[in-house]
Amino acid sequence: MLTKEQIAQRIAKEVKDGYYVNLGIGIPTLVANYVPKGIDVEFQSENGVLGMGPFPFEGEEDADVINAGKQTITTLPGASFFDSSMSFGMIRGQHVDLTILGAMEVAENGDIANWKIPGKMVKGMGGAMDLVASAENIIVAMMHTNRAGASKLLKRCSLPLTGVNCITKVVTNMAVMDVTDKGFVLLERAPGVSVEDIKAATEGNLIVEGEVPEMVI
Amino acid sequence: MINRTVSSVEEALEGVKSGMTFMVGGFGLSGIPENSIAQLVKTGITDLTCISNNAGVDDFGLGLLLQGKQIKKMISSYVGENDEFERQMLSGELEVDLIPQGTLAERCRAAQAGIPAFFTPAGYGTEVAEGKEVRDFNGKPHILEHAFQADFAFVKAWKGDEAGNLIFKGTARNFNPVMAGAATITVAEVEELVPAGTLDPNQIHIPGIFVKRIFQGAKYEKRIEQRTVRQRD
User: Which SMART domains does this entry report, sorted A to Z (chain B) (predicted)?
Assistant: First the structure.
């Protein structure tokens, strides 16, 4: 099984030269640490910055320069700041090439739930609904099962939805899958994890075609 | 030059009343109108509806108005990191309308720009779309969202001049520019207020026409919510 860091490492391989990328909070934020050297990428944070850099050195934090997770950050040469409307114009207008976000549940038809557990947790959707409704290329980073061992890759989401029919790829601690009209297509399995293990941990329709290679991280 | 300056935060907030709807700029604690919020706490007015991306933290930002139970309803996109907020929401004391962040920004901008409503794909097929008109454009479903209507907008900028022109800094810009001019009265507070003619007109982010009253904040705490740093090698 992959660690959260390794999930981020695997997703980083999907980031291509020239991409503008929006990273969600949690595992997606870690992806920035593993982007292959030699390719040019700019990270967008929906609170209004493009060209996000690493955390500042101690003593150089600026309350006026944060990311969507409210963490202090820095900017890289070529960076820009803008207002919230323009930021979501970038997202809604499909100028952002890749969106990476976390999820509580993903369904075999590409539905996603990640903002609310009725009666328990209601923090809000933030920018997630805007992102999933407009982005063409969305990768979900998540654990394959919950703490109790129940699958988070379902036939239908049980939690309130964030978006419908929008997720195209999922990377979990067990597998890499495309989300297609027919269901989850298994592309790669984590080192030491068998196809049978993945089938057992996936409630939604899992399509296995031929040999499934082990991930290279 | 039309002078938009007021001499004090008290004067800036003249006319605020219980039951009003306010827009409040900021993302997290970044770029929030600290001085206006502190003064709103002092006025003791209640039953407020606040349109703001977040609700502050327990002891800062809009959290201060929540502590005094001055807010009746919050319209936000994300409200984590605030225990008192959660308590009031779960107990039913506080009404909360959660809406997508891009929709929140655009409903402000629409109000600023005189656009009564617009279609967006955000939230289609979710709770957010309940009761809203759906229409297909280019083969894709969109939902109808309306411009906000607010009595006051409280925004915060880095620099401003007597004419009400504003310049923002970093990600403290966020919702402030789209709320300016989006309410009946816009109050801008700035870290540095300069005479007209000092700021380069090419560098103005928000023209003074969108700002009714401007003042220099007495002090800024500019609290950091998540201090993240890296070590020097």
Answer: CoA_trans
Count of other CB atoms within 10 angstroms of residue A208: 14
SS3 A15: coil
Decide: pTM greater than 0.80: yes
Percentage, residues of chain A above pLDDT 90: 93
The answer for residues whose C-beta is within 8 angstroms of residue B210's C-beta and 6 or more apart is B112, B164, B180, B181, B186
Return d(Cα A73, Cα B227) in angstroms, integer: 9
Structural domains of chain A, ranges and CATH numbers in brackets: 4-34+95-208 (3.40.1080.10)
Tokens of B157: 């900028």
CB contact under 8 A, B226 and A69: yes
Task: Suggest the residue from B85, B171, B224 to mutate for an interface test with chain A (most A CBs closer than 10 A).
Answer: B171
Q: What is the ipTM of this complex?
A: 0.96
The pLDDT tens digits of the residues spanning B103-124 come to 999 999 999 999 999 999 999 9
What is each CA distance from A206 to A124, A164, A182, A198, in whole angstroms? 30, 19, 9, 9
Reported as type and span, the H/E element at residue B119 is strand B117-120
* CATH number of the domain bearing residue B25: 3.40.1080.10
Decide: helix, strand or coil at residue A44: strand
**Could you report the per-residue pLDDT of A19-75, keeping only the tens digit for each?**
999 999 889 999 999 999 999 999 999 999 999 999 999 999 999 999 999 999 999
B186 beta partners = B153
Q: How many CA atoms lie within 13 A of B167 on its CB side?
A: 15
Model pLDDT, residue B50: 98
Which residue of chain B has the CA closest to A165?
A: B125
Q: Which residues of A touch B223 (CB under 8 A)?
A: 63
Residue B123 lies in a domain: yes
Count of the separate structural domains present in chain B = 1
CB contact under 8 A, A56 and B172: no
Residue-range definition of the domain harbouring residue B36: 9-216
Flag whether B227 is in a domain. no
